[in-house]
Design goal:
Blueprint (H helix, E strand, L loop, with lengths): L2 H20 L3 H11 L4 H25 L10 H16 L4 H21 L17 H16 L4 H12 L4 H25 L5 H23 L7 H16 L6
Helix pairs in contact: 1-2, 1-3, 1-9, 2-3, 2-10, 3-8, 3-9, 4-6, 4-8, 5-10, 6-7, 6-8, 7-8
């Protein structure tokens, strides 16, 4: 692996970690970087979970030190972890070229969402948190399935569900989001690793950058910076979705 490749992965990891912690969607950046260096889509999807695990772990610790986990709703853990395991097990059996198309379509959908629903990127009214409900459990279970299958963009979806549906405050929802991602990435990564789809060297390099970005992103969230890099992410999504969907070629 050349120094240029290492630098690309490291920088991409930092940016992805910041974006993932602030709101979500940073995995589209790290997925694009992994595909760019030559990994097939299924390996890129699996390898990205190493970075996600490291980044979310660091972000969770930063929020814990800031006292953001008092009174958290722990029923979310088994619901989302169960969904993530189902999603990851399903992704293992999807052909790389088909998964590439799924990633491209997901990028395009997230691009449209971010262009026309900027309020989902961290802006909401006064929180009116509700506890456990069947509706909430089903919604978060579906979030977990998508996270296990693809992960990319799940943070934005989860923020929307938790803030606008479950009534959490933005900072509280962001802290809960990264802690849940850390927990459910463990079974998802285990499934991908046992299937031989993880490039550990690329994943660790990307992950170190993502861990740095995760710490920075947690601090920015606590300082009130949830929308700082929205337009940069929009540009990445636009370019990546077009490249992935054009002629069925990976870069």
């Amino acid at each position: 692996m050349s120094m240029t490749t290492l630098l690309l992965l490291g920088v991409s990891g930092v940016f992805a970690g910041i974006v993932n912690t602030l709101a979500g969607g940073g995995s589209f950046v790290s997925l694009a970087a992994l595909i760019f260096i030559g990994l097939p889509a299924d390996m890129a999807n699996a390898t990205n979970r190493v970075a996600v695990l490291l980044q979310s772990g660091v972000s969770t610790e930063a929020f814990r030190r800031a006292g953001q986990f008092e009174g958290q709703q722990w029923w979310l853990i088994p619901v989302t972890c169960g969904g993530a395991a189902i999603g990851a097990a399903t992704a293992v059996f999807v052909q790389p070229n088909h998964l590439q198309t799924v990633i491209g379509v997901a990028m395009l959908a997230m691009l449209v969402w971010m262009l026309f629903a900027p309020q989902s990127f961290g802006e909401a009214g006064e929180p009116k948190r509700e506890g456990f409900t069947v509706r909430g459990a089903l919604a978060m279970g579906c979030v977990g399935v998508y996270a296990g299958f693809l992960q990319a963009g799940v943070g934005i979806v989860m923020l929307a569900v938790m803030v606008f549906w479950l009534g959490h405050g933005v900072v509280e929802a962001t802290a809960t989001k990264v802690s849940l991602i850390f927990v459910w990435t463990i079974p998802a990564l285990t499934i991908f690793a046992l299937s031989g789809l993880v490039d550990w060297r690329a994943g660790i390099v990307l992950g170190v950058g993502a861990a740095i970005g995760g710490w920075v992103g947690a601090k920015l969230t606590l300082w009130g910076g949830a929308g700082l890099i929205r337009w940069v992410l929009i540009a990445v999504l636009a370019v990546s979705s077009v490249r992935l969907l054009s002629d069925g070629l990976v870069w």
